[in-house]
Every structure is written in C-alpha cells, then in structure tokens.
Here is the input.
Amino acid sequence: MTKEMKITPWEVEGDVDYGKLVKEFGTSPISDKIRKKIEKCHPLLRRGIYFSHRDFDKWLEAHEKGKRVSVITGRGPSEKMHLGHLVPFLVAKSLQEEFNCEVFIPVSDDEKFYVKENLNFESSMKFSEDNILDLIALGFKQGKTFIFEDFVYTDIYKYAARIAKRITYSEAKAVFGLKPENNIGWSFYPAMQAAHILFPQFMRGKHISVVPVGIDQDPFIRLTRDIATGKDFNFEKPAALHAKFVPSLTGDAKMSSSEGSQIFLSDTEKEVENKIKKYAFSGGQNTIEEHRKHGGNPEKDVSFQYLKFFFEPNDEKLKKIHDDYKSGKLLTSELKQILIEKINAFLKEHQEKKRLAKKQVEKFLIR
Ligand code: TRP
Here is the structure.
C-alpha cells in the first residue's frame, strides 16, 4: 500500500515522489546544460542524487563572469556521522575544488537539542565536536572553509534576530508544519537556519551562495529567499541544489539509523564487512544458478548504488560492474566484496585524517 507523502525538515513519511516534489515546491530539474558544467564534480552531483535546483544556473553564470560565489551547507549534529550524512559535504567540497570558492558550514546543535526529545545539552555539544572533526577530515581547504557551532558562535544570534522579526508565527507554522505540542525552540530555529544561509553575505557582502541540501530542507530555502530581498536586506537570493534521500543499506529510501542500516564513519573493517554481507539489499537472484541465468538488477541493488554515488568515480569501471551484474557474470557476493574493499579503504584514510583533524580545528572554526 502506498502511504501519502509528507515531507518537512523534521519528518519524512510515505513513498517519496521526486517529480511531484519538484512541482509542489516549484523548483527546477537539473538541465543537461547545467550537467555539462558540473561534469567533473562528485558522482553525487553528476550521477543524479542531486536532481533539482533553484538558481544554480545563475550561480554558475556569476562564477563564469568572475564574480564571487560561495557554498553554504550545514550539519544537524544529532548522532555520530554515517555515510548518508556526507552527501552535501562531499558536494560542497567538490564545488570548492572545481570553482575555487569559500565554503561555510554551520553546525546546528541548537536545532537538534530542541527537536530530539532525548538529546540533552551536553550531548548535543559533544556530537558537534565529534562531527566537526569528521567534516574537517573530508579535506576542505584551510583558509577557505569556515565552520561554526550555534552554541559556540553565539554572534549568529544577532543575525537570526533580524531575520526572526520578519517571520510571522503563522508563516513558520505553515512552512514547517509546526504543531501545538512542539516547544517554542522549533518556532525560532528557522530564523537561525536562515541566518546560516545568509551568513556568507553577512560576512562578505552581497553575492550568490548555493546551498546543497536534501530536498526536505527546501522550506528553509524558500523562506530565506523571500527574506534575502525583503525590506531589511539587500542580498542575493541564495541558490539551492536538492538531493534525493540516499537509500540506507537495507534499501529503505529514508534516512533512518536503525540497527544495521547505516555504515558509520567510525565503523571497523569487520563491522563494515558484516553489515554489507548481512544487510545490504541485493538486486540479485535467489540462487547462483538463477543469477547466472537471469542476472541481477543494479538499479535495486544497494551495493551497486553505493558504488555509483560514492565509491567508483571511474565511469568505465562502473559500467563494467553494472553490465557484469546485469548479465549474471558478477555475483552478489562478489559485488559486495568490491564495495566492502572500497568502503574500508575510504574509512581507513578518513579515520586517520580525523585523528589529525584534532590539531586543525582552530584553523577552521569561527568563534
Ligand atoms: N537542518 C539541517 C539538518 O538537519 C542542518 C543545517 C543547519 C543546514 N544549518 C543549515 C543545512 C544550513 C543547510 C543550510 O540536516
């Protein structure tokens, strides 16, 4: 049975129909013309996880004309980070490398503190600290990347207050689906996130920033775009790049972190191997004989999807894996082995860089 789709920044319900979202939200699909200009960017961008945008064409044009452009995307530190959480940051880093621009990364510990009933104040700050090391470990450029935590960089409040004054309660309620039982932190937080999104312009003056985010975050973008050109601010409307939800290991389209459904960045080699073998949803047949005869379905196979979006940037190699799996030449166990090795190589390096990141924090943090 299909459940009716309901999407807010804090809740995803039912089967997600991306085509319908583009229509409902009034965003634009990513055109071939745009795709050509991001051919060298991360697979997440060029292979379709990012499917919709607002004004990204204008962002690219501004860059072509030699004007300042920037990237801003944030992390809600509700837990330790898993692969799915990396999506906007891998894209931000790739845009930084390709277009040589500044990247701003707010960490909304206040948001998660308000929204997660069981997350206490100390833990929300602990997760910020830990997640920030993961972000630095991704290899953003020093001196061109600025990370800040809402509970530490409290100056952000001055910007949020100016924005809060321009959002009515009924508007916030309608845009974010606020409920009477929600604490009032929920109703103020949108002003904080709008301040994050306009932060590059508060810092550097008027210019166009792009926000790579999950499509569920678009309400924040809409709200911020209205405020950017409203009576208090003479800013550019921020652009956006919208991602689909990356499937969990079990093939669930939503971002759940239930047992075995995610690879955490802190997982050991053995944990990765066990999780992939046990949980990674397979597009293969029930027996080897049947698989050899009918082949597998790479579109449904989560291991193939992870190679496509994260771990096999080489188009020819990916195509060979795709074709071999589809023809039955490559077995599910063999496909899983390829992924296990790729993930473990990535995590080994990541975990080492995360250790080193402890010494670099001050170079990235705004206080
Ligand atoms: N709300 C986002 C999340 O839960 C995190 C976030 C905070 C963010 N500030 C942002 C995302 C600014 C984009 C832009 O994942």
Observations:
- The chain has a mean pLDDT of 95.
- Residues 9, 72-76, 106, 108, 111, 193, 196-197, 211, 213, 217 surround tryptophan (CB under 6 Å).
- The longest helix spans residues 332-357.
- The longest strand covers residues 208-214.
